[in-house]
Design goal:
The complex is a heterodimer of chains A (about 140) and B (about 90). Chain A has about 140 residues and is α+β, with helices and mostly antiparallel strands. Chain A has one domain: Alpha-Beta Complex (Aldehyde Oxidoreductase, domain 3). Helix content of chain A is about 30%, strand content about 45%. In chain A, strands 3, 4, 6, 8, 9 and 10 form a six-stranded antiparallel sheet that branches. In chain A, strands 1-5-7-2 form a four-stranded mixed sheet, sandwiched between helices. In chain A, strand 9 and strand 10 form a beta hairpin. The chains are: A alpha+beta (about 140), B alpha+beta (about 90). The interface between A and B is medium-sized, with 26 and 21 residues.
């Protein structure tokens, strides 16, 4: 198990290594990547900001939810903060299970829960201005 | 009159920009709820959004608006996280 909020680049292979073991026949890894467009505009870069002291415990809680539903799962999660360029990895959820069906389901659960309950925010710098992304809405930044 | 207690307030993301600072100390009466704390802060920082669009956290856990704060507590008001379709 590993749960990180980090300013450093994230290597998805490192998180896969954390969940790898001889009983795990399937590893499912979700990687979130900084996209070059949003809302029909070109994006230049993103800034991520975290409430780190709360974000890591929230990630651990999601890891426990996964273990409650898929007892054989092993989980690793990391989220980047700070300035991110197009193409960089912003978030990774890696889950190993004995078989692929539960690995896919558990990984999907992990990233969906992370997106709704881990206090990390994205500020988008785009050609039409700077916006905080709050769920499905974009609100102008200062 | 009871002695006031102090809580440490933390703002993040858009709320940090609207409040104009990351942290502040706020004095409230003992037994105050998170709702009262947020209403007091909205009185000081007119730009803060309505409570309906924010979640409250008490000592780094999501909490109900009715939860009471104690002296030295860390309180945070959390805008919707980055979620969406991303």
């Amino acid at each position: 198990m590993r749960y990180d909020v980090t300013m450093e680049p994230i290597d998805p292979r490192e998180l896969e290594a954390v969940v790898t073991h001889t009983g795990a026949g399937a590893i499912c890894t979700f990687s979130g990547i900084v996209r070059d467009s949003s809302r029909g505009q070109s994006v230049t870069h993103l800034d991520y900001e975290a409430y780190a002291e709360m974000a890591v415990p929230q990630m651990r809680k999601i890891g426990q939810e996964i273990k409650d539903r898929w007892p054989e799962a092993r989980v690793a999660m990391a989220h980047r903060t700070g300035h991110l360029a197009i193409g960089e990895v912003s978030v990774v959820v890696a889950v190993s299970c004995p078989h692929r069906a539960e690995a896919f389901e558990a990984c999907r659960w992990g990233i969906d829960r992370l997106k709704e309950s881990v206090p990390i925010w994205k500020k988008e710098h785009a050609t039409d201005g700077t916006f905080w992304i709050e769920g499905d809405t974009a609100k102008p930044g200062v | 009159m009871a002695v006031a207690i102090a809580v440490r307030v933390r703002f993040f993301a858009r709320l940090r920009e609207l409040a104009g600072n990351e942290t502040e100390s706020l004095q409230v009466q003992p037994g105050s709820s998170l709702e009262h704390v947020y209403d007091t802060l909205r009185g000081k920082h007119a730009g803060l959004p309505p409570r309906e669009s924010v979640r409250a956290a008490l000592n780094q856990e999501f909490a109900d608006w009715s939860a009471e704060v104690a002296n030295g507590d860390e309180v945070a008001f959390i805008p919707p996280v980055s979620g969406g379709r991303g």
